[in-house]
Design the sequence.
């Protein structure tokens, strides 16, 4: 008779706050198989788990579109709000001001941001609100069957053969111009780069704007599209290799100073940008404008952290808000008393 030796159950892998990665998952995706948005959801799950962020301390905000449905598929225990099309920034602003201690992750589409939502996007960027704002950019309106959005490149073609003859809006250029303090572009198919950028965005304080090219396999992945998997594989031009060292990992950063740029982020984490043949200073916005423009002229898509300014004051600092969240302040501290009101009236007489 043989004896069965039972091996002890292998311990489940947990992060620094004791949670398994499964806690960071959401519902089963109903997006098309192969949609770039699904890959971005996976990277978000990994990044928040690896950074040890408590998902109950996160607010997920979105607008309308396939991309805006994605928050249902990650960070199940987080707070969430699906706003009106293109209007997520104003709802997010209210939520951030009501509870300054939560981490806000906004998920939008190129239509939600650059078409109907462009006015709201502009004001979000110029305020430098603490938000990680991800545009899942497929150059079309996936949810309504693939019409061109405002990020579609000039000359790109719909499946029906219709050619886009309007100039695209470059959301990264716009965000840098308006004052966002962390601006990056990536590709949903580049796991390593996107993961490093997301972790650095979590460590940043202020607006972290990420434009992630995310192919729509159903309506915009054919020849003639500049947001397809094939196009991105051929034209993706990474600026640098990104090493991100979180503050809790006490690793010596090992690099040749002449070949890399190191940036310390607000929580003490380090970002090391190793040059790949580009003479590029990510803290200089003029370098960013030039490099994006030159790449565009060559038909390339420049990816990486295009601009970072960890010194910029965020909107909460500018408003001199109390440390305590407005949402939890008791009535007597929110409403001025009769004497205060009388004093104000007196000043106005
Ligand atoms: C006020 C309003 N106008 C138009 C629509 C129709 N609509 C729904 S989603 C969408 C575009 C979504 O495109 P995008 O943000 O790029 O997301 P994707 O589906 O491509 O991920 C439009 C025009 C709407 N829902 N509400
Ligand atoms: S229609 Fe396009 S954007 Fe929408 S889920 Fe399918 S592949 Fe993704």
Sequence:
């Amino acid at each position: 008779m043989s004896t069965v030796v039972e091996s002890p159950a292998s311990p489940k892998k947990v992060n620094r706050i004791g949670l398994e990665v499964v806690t960071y998952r959401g519902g089963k995706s109903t997006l098309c198989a192969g949609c770039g948005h699904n890959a971005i959801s996976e990277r978000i799950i990994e990044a928040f788990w690896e950074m040890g962020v408590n998902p109950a301390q996160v607010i997920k905000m979105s607008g309308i579109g396939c991309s805006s449905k994605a928050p249902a598929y990650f960070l199940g225990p987080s707070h969430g709000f699906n706003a009106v099309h293109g209007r997520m920034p104003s709802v997010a602003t209210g939520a951030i001001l009501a509870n300054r201690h939560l981490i806000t992750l906004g998920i939008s589409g190129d239509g939600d941001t650059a078409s109907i939502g462009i006015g709201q996007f502009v004001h979000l960027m110029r305020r430098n609100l603490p938000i990680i704002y991800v545009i899942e950019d497929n150059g079309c309106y996936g949810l309504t069957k693939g019409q061109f959005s405002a990020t579609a490149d000039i000359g790109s073609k719909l499946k029906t053969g219709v050619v886009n003859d309007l100039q695209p809006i470059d959301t990264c250029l716009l965000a840098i111009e308006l004052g966002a303090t962390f601006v990056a572009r990536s590709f949903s198919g580049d796991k390593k780069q996107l993961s490093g950028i997301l972790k650095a965005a979590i460590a940043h304080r202020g607006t972290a704007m990420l434009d992630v090219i995310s192919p729509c396999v159903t309506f915009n992945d054919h020849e003639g599209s500049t947001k397809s998997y094939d196009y991105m594989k051929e034209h993706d031009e990474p600026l640098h290799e990104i090493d991100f060292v979180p503050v809790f990992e006490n690793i010596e950063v090992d690099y040749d100073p002449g070949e890399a740029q190191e940036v310390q982020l607000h929580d003490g984490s380090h970002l090391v940008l190793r040059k790949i043949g580009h003479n590029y200073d990510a803290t200089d916005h003029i370098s960013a404008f030039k490099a994006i423009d030159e790449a565009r002229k060559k038909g390339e898509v420049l990816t990486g952290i295009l601009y970072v300014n960890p010194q910029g004051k965020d909107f909460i600092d500018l408003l001199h808000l109390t440390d305590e969240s407005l949402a939890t302040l008791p009535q007597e501290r929110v409403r001025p008393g009769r004497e205060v009101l009388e004093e104000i009236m007196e000043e106005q007489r």
In short: The pocket of thiamine diphosphate (ligand 1) is lined by residues 64-67, 85, 109-112, 116, 136, 138, 140-144, 149, 216 (CB under 6 Å). The longest strand covers residues 301-308. The chain has one domain: 21-319. Residues 21-319 form a domain with the Rossmann fold fold (CATH 3.40.50.970).
